[in-house]
Amino acid sequence: MRLPKLDLKPMKNLLNLYDRSKHINYLTEILSGLTVSLALVPEAIAFALIAGLSPLTGLYAAFSIGLITSLFGGRPGMISGATGAVAVVIVSLAQSHGVEYIFATVVLAGMIQMLAGALKLGKFIRLVPHSVMFGFVNGLAIVIFLAQLASFKVAGENGELGWMIGDQLNVMLGLVFLTMLIIWGLPKLTKAVPASLTAILVVSAIVLGLDIDTRNVGDISSIKGGFPPFHIPEVPLTLETLSIIFPYAFIVAGVGLIESLLTLNLIDEITETRGKSNKEAMAQGLANVVTGFFSGMGGCAMIGQSLINISSGARARLSGIVASVMLLVFIMFGAEYIEKMPIAALTGLMIMVAIGTFEWASIRAIGRMPTRDNLVGFLVAGITVLLHNLALAVLIGVIISALVFAWENAKRIRARKYVDEDGTKHYEIYGPLFFGSVQAFAEKFDIATDPDVVIIDFRESRVNDMSGIEALNKITERYTRAGKELHLRHLSPDCLKLLKNAEKIIDVNIIEDPTYKVAVEI
Questions:
Q1: How far apart are CA 382 and CA 358, in angstroms?
Q2: Which residues, 6 or more positions from 323, have their beta carbon under 8 angstroms from its beta carbon?
Q3: CA 107/CA 338 separation, integer angstroms
Q4: With 0-12 CB in 10 A as exposed, 13-18 as middle and 19+ as buried, what is 316?
Q5: Closest Cα partner for 216 from 335, 372, 114?
């Protein structure tokens, strides 16, 4: 008896995590991942401390989120982990209710993100204008740079932080500039190895070899630990608990998705490829659900680490996997060595990331771009720098851009008027009819002097919203009260559906009516 042949294609597609049609430089991927893993350590620790949590919660989040998004995310080469944006959101909850509520919040946030991905809401990131992207990127670059200034501070005798002085400052500056010089100059000589990794290794070797007295990673906190333990959040399963964690979870989910999808768009532009926003949203959600059960603080895409990875030549998933796995190796087996790595090397690396992140082209374009776009860009950058709230900055930028767009389009509605041989007056409307243009639309008509029959032609216009529909109803009522006959022509079918109560006074050529469709992501 012959067994039926199994179709293994679905399983093959599931297991094939790499696009084998594209060439992968495995050495570059591995070295880039190693570089990123070294840079992840101090940031993950710092973000955990900002949130008032144990450093290991940040390191565990960087491992689990980075690994899952690298395996299943929609943007190969993008690095995710514990982030400052999430830390700022959860710090008050950590202070008021403790770490168990943080874990529960992260799990719920992940579920919300997965729901957003399933509903294909990732496509709405297209609504972010280019001026907002410029402001977001420039603001983030400034934030990354300013964050490095803390490396030049030390605790005094009274425990307060103060600026370095004397030889300590000179040594720190010298090591930072040496790191930056290697990152800038090595690619001009050879691209065989990532400049960032080379800089870290060279500066670390100089510090250890010459026994230079400078701050290292171990001065911040110990990173030694075991494999992330599985842990179900110990919170009461009640509506009261849900009411406590849901607002935080919703904000974490929103902040995480906005920052991740904007980072995805930025990497798309750099690599001239296209990521999958909905797939990334699903992966981010899955990663947060998992990290919440493995003692992690939650997170999202990390633009600084992603740019390190991309600038080192990585383009595939392997680099992110290597970065995550090596981070776990450092935690479990290499803590004593990583803790000796000088902070100056990582500071120089992140300053070069900030310089590379800043959109210098936006400065040159100030005189060429519309003033409104420049103002939006400056506003978004300013909010990002002052409040360190990327999601709020982007949201405000999008709202202002939308209002400016509405205002500009409201001024574009106009009417061409003429009377035909039958004595019928025609109003040919041009431009969109929506909430911003209804007043200008109403002012186009001279009801008192118009003839008995009037036709308003919408062939070159579109009724966009309920305000436009109401404007049509009002103009119809005004002509009716004046004892005159009004016909509305070339209205689209969706508008006709909303105007079904006025069918007796509408003259429509259905064959010539346009049909409007909205492009959606598949």
A1: 14
A2: 32, 33, 34, 36, 37, 40, 66, 70, 79, 305, 309
A3: 30
A4: buried
A5: 335
Query: What whole-number distance in Å separates Cα of residue 391 and Cα of residue 128?
Result: 12
Cα distances (Å, whole numbers) of residue 233 to 51, 229, 299, 408: 17, 12, 17, 51
- Would you state the structure tokens that stand for residue 37, as one six-digit string? 């893993």
Helix (H, G, I), strand (E, B) or coil at 130: helix
For tokens 């050879």, name the residue: 190
- Written as six digits, the tokens of 200 are 């870290």
Task: Quote the tokens at residue 398.
Answer: 């999008």
Q: Which pLDDT score is estimated for 497?
A: 67
pLDDT tens-digit readout, 208-235: 999 888 888 888 778 888 999 999 999 9
- Contacts of residue 189, defined as CB under 8 A and 6 or more positions apart, other chains included, come to none
Residue 484 burial (10 A CB sphere; 0-12, 13-18, 19+): middle
How is residue 467 written in tokens?
């305000």
* Residues lower than pLDDT 50 in the chain: 1, 3, 6-16, 502, 505-514, 516-522
